[in-house]
């Protein structure tokens, strides 16, 4: 994976835009016409859509490749689509799709990636790999290695964030550090950010896109629809071509040879780690309070006192011991526990004194 110079054919950043799903020839051609081609160099559309649950719209299938090809022929744009198995790969090559990407659900399965790699053996097409749904750097890198092992030289990565059980403000938590670790290990592999799937909504697209450029990503993939609210899939995260241009015009690029930019990149990286950790801490505290409230309801039902000295002593001892092993002072642990305990007791007291509603 030494020579990945394909990105140099584009004026950075590379912008890939188009609908989440191909819906009709008219829809595809309308979007392609409205997209500002001075900014967007590659037109994307999902032909096959792996969905979480059955009986959902899973793409129009191979007929959509005809519409993609028509966009290419009439507007001179490069075209891109997701491939989820070896058959998809062969069909995409047959229709001369320029950029193929392997989705997060496929990246997680080495057998699937291997079959796709063999179907694409020695292709000169650009092949991008989205991060796996789970935060596993080795699995992501391994997918690139499988493709490289089949003589595929034009490789890239797409950062689309990682799924979490607990929902946050992101559809998929970016966990920027994992993508930055990827960039450090494979600096010659171009990195594209997919803010649409990180955000899951339109509101956060600019901020995530700007953060990607602060980290010197090579481009963006943003879902774009002529009528986003009526989109057949992922409507909430798609934007109009006009809005896409507004975002792209306002974004600032960072230069790695600028000392100020180096500092900005470093401090942004660390601050975003802090933000993500703070968000995780608050979410964990909220979950703890829910459990405390459940305990309060149980105590009320069985007429048990809120404060249990022996239990509190056990919590303190366990926390101090665990904190010491993590390099945290006993004084800090004590203050943190006191704050948590006071809030838990207050909420349980509210439960105890709450009057039963009259029926």
From TrEMBL:
SUPFAM superfamilies: Aldolase, Chorismate mutase II. Residues 261-352 form the Chorismate mutase domain. SMART domains: CM_2 (SM00830). Its EC number is 5.4.99.5. It is an enzyme of class 5 (isomerase). Gene3D superfamilies: Aldolase class I, Chorismate mutase. GO terms for molecular function: chorismate mutase activity; transferase activity. The keyword Transferase applies. Keywords: Transferase. GO terms for biological process: chorismate metabolic process. This is chorismate mutase. It comes from Faecalibacter macacae.
């Amino acid at each position: 994976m030494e020579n990945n110079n394909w990105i140099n054919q584009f004026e950075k950043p590379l912008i890939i835009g188009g609908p989440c799903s191909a819906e009709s020839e008219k829809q595809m051609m309308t979007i392609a016409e409205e997209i500002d081609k001075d900014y967007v160099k590659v037109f994307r559309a999902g032909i096959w859509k792996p969905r979480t649950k059955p009986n959902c719209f899973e793409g129009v299938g191979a007929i959509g490749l005809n519409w993609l090809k028509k966009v290419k022929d009439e507007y001179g744009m490069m075209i891109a689509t997701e491939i989820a198995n070896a058959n998809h790969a062969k069909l995409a090559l047959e229709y001369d799709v320029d950029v193929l990407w392997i989705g997060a659900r496929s990246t997680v399965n080495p057998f699937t990636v291997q079959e796709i790699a063999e179907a694409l053996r020695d292709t000169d097409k650009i092949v991008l790999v989205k991060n796996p749904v789970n935060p596993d750097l080795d699995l992501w890198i391994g997918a690139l290695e499988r493709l490289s092992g089949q003589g595929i030289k034009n490789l890239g990565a797409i950062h689309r964030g990682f799924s979490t059980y607990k929902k946050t403000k992101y559809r998929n938590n970016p966990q920027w550090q994992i993508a930055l670790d990827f960039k450090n290990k494979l600096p010659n592999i171009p990195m594209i950010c997919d803010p649409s799937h990180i955000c899951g909504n339109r509101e956060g697209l600019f901020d995530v896109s700007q953060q990607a450029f602060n980290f010197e990503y090579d481009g963006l993939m943003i879902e774009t629809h002529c009528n986003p609210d009526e989109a057949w899939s992922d409507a909430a995260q798609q934007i109009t071509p006009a809005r896409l241009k507004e975002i792209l015009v306002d974004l600032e690029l960072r230069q790695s040879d600028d000392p100020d930019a180096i500092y900005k990149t470093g401090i942004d990286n660390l601050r975003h780690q802090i933000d993500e950790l703070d968000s995780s801490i608050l979410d964990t505290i909220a979950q703890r309070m829910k459990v405390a409230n459940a305990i309060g309801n149980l105590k009320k039902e069985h007429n048990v006192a809120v404060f249990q000295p022996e239990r509190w002593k056990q919590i303190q001892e366990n926390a101090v011991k665990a904190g010491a092993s993590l390099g945290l002072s006993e004084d800090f642990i004590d203050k943190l526990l006191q704050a948590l305990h006071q809030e838990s007791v207050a909420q349980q007291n509210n439960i105890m004194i709450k009057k039963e509603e009259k029926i």
